Amino acid sequence: MRRIISILMENEAGALSRIVGLFSQRGYNIDSLTVAPTDDESLSRLTLTTEGDEGTIEQITKQLNKLVEVVKLVDLTEGAHLERELMLIKLKAVGAQRAELKRTTDIFRGQIVDVTSTLYTIQLAGTSDKLDAFVEAVNGVPIVEVVRSGVSGLGRGDKVLSL
Amino acid sequence: MELLSGADILIRSLADEGVDVIFGYPGGAALHIYDALYRQKAVEHILVRHEQAATHMADGYARVTGRVGTVLVTSGPGATNTITGIATAYMDSIPMVVISGQVQSHLIGGDAFQETDMVGVSRPIVKHSFLVKKAEDIALTIKKAFYIARTGRPGPVVVDVPKDITNPANLFEYRYPSSVKMRSYTPVLRGHAGQIKKATEEILNAKRPIIYAGGGVVQGNASELLRDLVHSLGCPVTSTLMGLGCIDSADKQYLGMLGMHGTYEANNAMHNADLILAVGARFDDRVTNDPEKFCPGARIIHIDIDPASISKTVRADIPIVGPVEQVLTDMIEAVKQLNIVPDKTAQDAWWKTIEEWREIDCLAIKPTESPLMRPQQVVEMLSKVTNGDAIVTSDVGQHQMFAALYYKYNRPRQWINSGGLGTMGFGLPAAMGAKMAFPDANVVCVTGEGSIQMNIQELSTCKQYNLPIKIININNQALGMVKQWQDLHYEKRHSHSYMDSLPDFIKLAEAYGHVGIRVDRYEDLEAAMIECFSMKDKLVFMDIYVDPNEHVYPMQVAGGTIKDMVLSKAEGS
Q1: How many Å apart are CA B55 and CA B72, to the nearest integer?
Q2: Boundary-marking domain end, from A79, A113, A131
Q3: How high is the pLDDT of residue B366?
Q4: Residues of B in contact with A10 (CB under 8 A)
Q5: Does the beta-carbon distance from A59 to B185 stay under 8 Å?
């Protein structure tokens, strides 16, 4: 089952490599990973998505918690949560396809952020499913390049991951 | 406030942390630190012959004392040579701090001479590691390193120190912190009271309970408490390889070691139990056999300081995360408070069954046609001659299992071995670390002709520091455990498991300035051993030739339940 694990950790050199190393060392998967400092510059927030059965996820969260630089973590998928991923996708856009792509982009509430005579670069934010659906919807249009940020997220309502 | 160089701050911090001995080897990046060592007396330095041995010595010292073992090495090869020792300590949760020199900060990343990314290389086998960035951080980093190494589930911590920050030309204010708090590291101090009560109720209501005690009992200084609990419950207790000594082996309720080479009664009692109280043990694959088939009828209570050890391989019904010492104290109290009278009839029936298993006498040394001495006899004799009172370290292989099964341990921290990583070459340096800690104790290294050669250079260190340990080399002229597996699983194809062209160990011991005694016949063994132990101030190397065809039994059948085992060679082949 897909899980989103969000980690508050010390913003120190080497902390990220410990987390990534733990996954490779123990044979766990990382599907996506995103990390940046928070409003408190001594802390970084890392969000990763992984797959595994209940026992594996339990081990992953326990092993992560053991890392000295990990302050706190939460499995967002255990409760109501918001998740967002950003995608920049560069598509071949010529002739009639230009109008069609514009329409599809609007439907998905994306923006065309760069234009050449033959290309559109489209920015889209949403759940990973939504981004997948967009890629599916423009099926047939040649994709030149795709970059995705990986998932970020937080709990809905009062649920907060902080010190 | 005092002004000191980074190097002096480092050594002063160790002294203020209470470090009395440090095991190490100098080199370029560590020279400022070594100069600081030279100019003080509080910390004694033991010069090893190979950095791997330094880590095992610090490890042995830590295991017998419960204190943090400390190592000092240089960058590059000095640092990488410690890796096996760090991994050994990591697998057995041994508190250790390894300080490695590093090339100057501005050279890091440029492939400088003797540069290795020590923090990176050691990352998967440390509890934590630090690369010290500036001299002002040294004291606090050392404080944190020792705090992390010894608290919670103990483990090794690496502190990598670039040469420039130890430069004697630059002076800094020195103050050693009296305590340290880290928001991201808060070891559990108490087990959950409700869980402890619930667990105690289940134990008291069980019909066929057993206590499965591991290295955490020894490490957590809870052996006395475990004995109290065992005696107040009247139930059987078994120990892992790492837990040996937490219960006196003469205790009537003790069933011996469990697992791959465990006793018939211990493994059968586990398999048939209706309740298992696991204390500081981690359901290792050398215990469980196939975890899917593990003890099908048992409710499992698991006490451990490390939440990640709980339900890792075998699901716990009642998990208790906390220090074994505190949890057992509360459990003993709960036994008194709860006023539940255990079912006497059930308990008697349980013991009756266990006694039947015991009668098999699975460790009896069965006669063979061979006139050669048996390795089991050697360990039995060692136990007799030393009154079961020596500190025994071992290397890895058949001799390790014989030393575990046939020596009569009576106290914790008496049996020292590399259980998790299974490191050959561990025994001799570990014995040296133990002897440093307890100069008046009999310290014995039970080894084999394979293992001893993996760190035999330390005989030189023993001479330099006058460490009169006793080496019992159980010489079967083969890598016995490898050979045993080849006998059983590879149709006796002994691929590279024999030791051709062995050295003359007696001459070798003498060359290093020690005493060597060779024994070939069992009839000569007792007198030779008595002679060996009468030489109080000499390191004696006993080279004892034994039957090369002996196997370790009992032995579990791979892929079966914990009780599926073979008891003798006749049965096994």
Answers
A1: 9
A2: A79
A3: 86
A4: 184
A5: no
